[in-house]
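hey so i finally got around to running the thing on that chain from the lab meeting. sorry it took forever, my laptop kept dying and i had to restart like 3 times. anyway pasting the input first so we r on the same page abt which one it is
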Amino acid sequence: MSGKEQKYIQQAFETNWIAPLGPNVDQFEANLATYTGAKDVAVTNSGTSAIHLALTLLNVQKGDTVFCSTFTFIASINPALYLGATPVFIDSEIDTWGMSPIALANALEDAASKNKLPKAIIVVHLYGQSCKMDEIMALANRYDIPVIEDAAESLGSTYKGRQLGTIGTFGIYSFNGNKIITTSGGGALVSNDTKQIEKARHLASQAKEDAPYYSHREVGFNYRLSNVLAGIGIAQLDVLEERITKKRAIFQAYEAAFADNSALTFLPEWQETFNNRWLTTVLLEGVSPETVIELLAKKGIESRRLWKPMHTQPLFQDVAYYSEHTDVSHADLLFQKGLCLPSGTQLTDNQMDYICQTLREVCK
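ok and heres what got predicted. didnt touch it at all, straight out
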């Protein structure tokens, strides 16, 4: 926490604005719109619900397909399943670890030949790093398919000067407890289509009609963020740039400490992008992630694997998967070699020195 949250929480209690409506919600949405440059924002109770709303607004239904990065957390995929749609997984590319435009082109060409183009493409900006959005948007526009940017990990990151989440038809952010700013639980849906965001607010509030009684014409959801949590978000957003500076400093400290060590390769910052460095992530050579995790844990240091690709999950064993080449899966390679290092903004210089020293011993 930044220490400023209590002011807004207290205001919510003093004014009795506790429910998912109120001035904190309005202000948090306005502040997010100003920060990101999006024309409108609807804050929600999770990033997952924001994706669900986006897919609902795009009229995704049972029998439709939704293309998505395979290298992601399952929250990127579950909302499509809620709607009865079938995911199709797209491989990563090595430059950004994000969705491969070549693999996407292969999938779209195949789908077009079968007259089964997807209703949406969900692009995931991983670990603060933007995908190659020019190439992806060019493909989406060629086939007239809307793009949802899952920027849950990437608030504050940019692509050619534009905030991630504001390039496609919709963007989503997460304010879960592990994100760069948090409301304990929460998310946001952003768009330059103000009518769609207004519709999202309607659906997220149980689709209650404007009437002097409870009237409903369509299915709605209980997805709005509470006024209390929105107050936390206002204070957190005020320190976002400070958090990004700290996260990037942590990354730079790791990078400097291992500049002469070929055992670790860091996720690069692709040209004309800015990475918030939500997590510092590496690929290992000569040692397995499991070995490093186990040895670090013995020294009281927590680390974890990168995302296990969705096409390898038991839930999706029959789902289509497209890569750049049939005999190479970049997402599998990233999972096999990848590791997330401690990246909390509360890390001290002494703790960083201890982590780096221990990691060097482990990776000799």
